[in-house]
Amino acid sequence: MIVIVITALSRRVSVSTPIAMVVGGLALSFLPFIPEFQLSPDVVFFGFLPPLVFAGGYGTAIREVKRNLRPIILLAFGLVIFTAGVVAVVTRAFVPEIGWPGAFALGGIIAPPDEIAATAVFERLGVPRRIVTILEGESLFNDATALVIYRFAVAAASAGAFSLLGAGTEFVLILVGGVLVGLLGGLVIELLSRRVSDTPLAAAMTMVAPYAVYLPAEGIGATGVIAGVTAGLVARHAMRHASSDTRVVTAAVWQIWLFLLNGLVFLLLGLELRDVLRATPFTPAVVLGAAAIVVAVVAARFVWVFPATYLPRLIPAIKRVDPNPPWQAVVVVSWSGLRGVVSLAAALALPADFPQRDLILFFTFTVILATLIGQGLTLPVVIRMLGLQRDGDTAHSEAHARALTAEAALRRIDELEDDWPNHKQLIDSLRGQYEHRASHVESHHAGEPGEAEKELVEHTQIRRELIEAERRAALDLNARGVIDDEVLRAIERDLDLEEVRMEA
């Protein structure tokens, strides 16, 4: 109930919902009738995280990710390692009692940004699609990188030793293991999507799928995050084998589920803040250290992003294919390093006897608040000041694609006229509908059945053939790079709805 109310209020005042949830949770935690709340890290890692990373993979535009693979890799792996190192050095300099293992653990905890918080701002304002693609691609893999750094830092604190070669080897094995588990899970999803026709059952299986890949991957010592992302990527293709009814219902179920999960996790983060603040000794050294760490986190992203953007383009072959982006876009990517739920869960998961655990928790929450609220609230201002706008050709691209798919349906109608000579009236009617659509869409953005039943079945089959022709045409346009995944999803959804209405 609180999530729904805060979401409604945040949309009315045009504030990012994750920010409103954190602030609302913190305010509620100080009310006398609100009981003390402690969020278990297992609830986040094994309850919230699997569906969130699976949905991230499912909703990813694979073609766009491939096109932007270089910046995504530089951010998801290079920037995370760089940020963790910078934070460790700054933490050790300002708070020496925390020790190197604790400093690197903190670095791994707060290194990965939270894509949900940033894209919530982008959806309201509109920015070039490439920025969103890069940040979404970064978020798919940076959590795994950061959690591996965190895991090794905790192990080093327990064992008192650290091997860089061993850590590097294990890092590769953990990632490969996660990919393999995710691929296996995705293939199972594809097999089931071909065989299960019951809509509620198929939708329920997609809700179980994230846990079915995440938990086994963690169980064998691999990364469940990469497994969930990989399975989500495969599931996107697998769901094309499901019925239109299944896709429509599943999309609606997941939309509501993700809305509640995202709202709850940020609300719970705010509720947890009160206890962290009470357990922290607010000495001048601690406050100064917290400020230095926040500055280090924000500055490290700028220091990495600008050279990582422009230095590779000094190579002529790269610059010819991918010219320099405007500096305004690079500033927005640099200012979009908002931290969130993964950092919270990792901090809470520190062993109870970990050295300076309360201090690490305080620094983590400080960075989350400073970036989520400070950068999150100013991000819209930065975007407006820099004059960034959503790509202007998206609407035209979608209209052009719809015209091409309608033309594909018209070609199929000509073929069906020969196959169904007794249904000329329906064929002519459908031809008129599709001719109108093709010419105006771009400018206006148990036994033998009886004769009646048989005719209805045949009419349905003809119309389904045309919808399938449009769907194949849209997939072909996407495969040839004429339209991006966002346009493809919009067209697929409309075709699914049309097929569902036809069967109703």
CATH topology of the largest domain: Na+/H+ antiporter like fold
| Share of β-strand residues | under 5%
So, CATH architecture of the largest domain? Up-down Bundle
Number of strands: 0
What is the number of domains? Answer: 2
Shape: elongated
Give me the Rg, rounded. 26 Å
Q: Give the helix level as a range of percent.
A: over 70%
Descriptive overview:
The protein is an all-alpha fold and 504 residues long. The chain has 2 domains: 2-386, Na+/H+ antiporter like fold, CATH 1.20.1530; 394-503. Helix content is 80%, strand content 0%. It contains 21 helices and no strands. The chain has helices spanning 2-12, 17-29, 41-58, 62-67, 69-94, 99-110, 115-125, 129-159, 164-195, 199-219, 224-238, 244-279, 284-310, 316-321, 327-334, 341-348, 357-386, 394-419, 424-440, 451-479, 485-503. The longest helix has 36 residues, at 244-279. The chain is elongated, with a radius of gyration of 26 Å. It starts with a helix and ends with a helix.
Which keywords apply here?
504 residues, mainly alpha, Na+/H+ antiporter like fold, 2 domains, 80% helix
Brief write-up:
This protein is mainly α. It has two domains: 2-386, Na+/H+ antiporter like fold (Up-down Bundle), CATH 1.20.1530.20; 394-503.
